[in-house]
Every structure is written in structure tokens, then in C-alpha cells.
Amino acid sequence: MSRPPVVTTADLDAEVGVALPRRETLSCQFACVNVANVIGVNLAISVNAATINSQAHAMAMQYLASVQMP
């Protein structure tokens, strides 16, 4: 099992932080809404009719993608 790296006080002192803009700047004005509808459907049909000692298999794969434009 690997050990996590050791963080020293000197490492923390070397970090730089930047203040974020005011909350009003970050928020949207006039009904800024982010909505992403994602629907995934798996459908597989296998028919084994009027046969003796046979097998039927079905496999369905699913792919989901969602893109939000700014």
C-alpha cells in the first residue's frame, strides 16, 4: 500500500491564493438557469420461437451525453 505524500509547513507557505469576485458578479441576472435533461434507454429484444434446443441472446449498450452551453 502506498503512503500519501507528506505536506510540510513550507509547502503550505508556498501556496498562493486569489480572491474571488463579489457574489453579485458571479451570479446570473434575470433568470439564469442551468438545466440538463438526460435520458438513457436500453432496449434489447431476443426471440426464440418454434425452435427446439436453441438459445437466443440479446445485448443492449447505453451511451449518455449531456452538453451545457454557457
Major sheet details: none
User: Portion of residues in helices?
Assistant: 10-25%
Mean pLDDT: 76
**Which shape, going by the Cα principal axes?**
elongated
C-alpha Rg, in Å?
Answer: 27 Å
Low-confidence stretches: none
Structural class: little secondary structure
Q: Separation of termini?
A: 42 Å
The beta-strand count equals 0
User: How large is the count of helical segments?
Assistant: 2
Pattern of helices and strands: HH
Quaternary state of the chains: single chain
Strand content: under 5%
How many domains?
A: 1
Quick recap:
The protein has 70 residues and is low in regular secondary structure. It has helices at 9-14, 23-26.
